[in-house]
Design goal:
This protein is an alpha+beta fold. It has 2 domains: 51 residues; 52 residues, no CATH class. Helices cover 40% and strands 13% of the residues. The protein is built from 2 helices and 4 strands; from the N terminus they run H-H-E-E-E-E. The strands form 2 sheets. Strands 1-4 form a two-stranded antiparallel sheet. A two-stranded antiparallel sheet has the order 2-3. Helix 1 runs antiparallel to helix 2. The longest helix has 23 residues.
Length: 105
């Protein structure tokens, strides 16, 4: 993934030179913003060791019609009894429309 990030940095530097020369300023600034966003995403995925796309599913949580309520992440301890379930620790707050990246089993 680092190779792709490096290529994007090279492209960003080339565009910076074009912007400095006054060439197609608005279009080049838009392209720069897209490249910076791509670099940010790839860097974050690299930090999380999300390497092979085919090893993951992306799931978008359904949006509720009323717009309310959060989704909770629970440990079920392989039990069907909800009384045995425990909410995960940490600041995990999810709402409709959020995206979850799940490693395929």
């Amino acid at each position: 993934m680092q190779h792709a990030i490096d290529i994007l940095h090279q492209e960003a530097n080339a565009i910076k030179k074009q912007v400095g020369a006054g060439a197609e300023r608005e279009e080049n600034l838009r392209r720069m913003a897209e490249i910076q966003q791509a670099i940010g995403w790839l860097t974050r995925l690299q930090e999380l060791d999300v390497t092979r796309v085919r090893d993951y599913n992306l799931i978008q949580l359904p949006k509720r019609p009323d717009g309310g309520a959060e989704y909770r992440v629970m440990r079920d301890y392989d039990s069907e009894e909800r009384a045995d379930w425990e909410e995960t620790e940490g600041d995990i707050s999810m709402s409709g429309g959020d995206i979850i990246i799940c490693r395929k089993v």
